[in-house]
Backbone:
């Protein structure tokens, strides 16, 4: 059996690498599901290069860019986070 971990990322990237390094030797596969646009339309141009660097250095095994759904409901953020979690889980199951 293999153990895979998925991280969701839009901000807080300064904590990501140290978090990964705490578990890296105990897991077989690490995936990052990131967004360049927040659940509410805020744009970030620096996330993708950051994630690609983690992959290049072998810190993560896989990454996926998530495009949030833009629907007008009060819990839009929660729905997007659940979708990202499910995508990460599915990637771990299929790829790892």
Residues:
């Amino acid at each position: 059996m293999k153990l895979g971990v998925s991280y969701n990322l839009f901000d807080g990237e300064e904590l990501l690498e140290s978090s990964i390094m705490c578990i890296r030797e105990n897991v077989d596969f690490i995936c990052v599901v990131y967004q360049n646009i927040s659940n509410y339309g805020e744009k970030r141009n620096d996330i993708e290069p950051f994630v690609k660097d983690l992959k290049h250095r072998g810190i993560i095994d896989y990454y996926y860019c998530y495009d949030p759904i833009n629907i007008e409901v009060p819990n839009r953020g929660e729905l997007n986070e659940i979708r990202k979690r499910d995508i990460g889980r599915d990637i771990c199951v299929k790829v790892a």
DSSP finds three helices and three strands in the chain. The longest helix spans residues 76-95. The CA atoms of residues 34 and 65 lie 5 Å apart. Helices lie at 13-23, 47-56, 76-95.
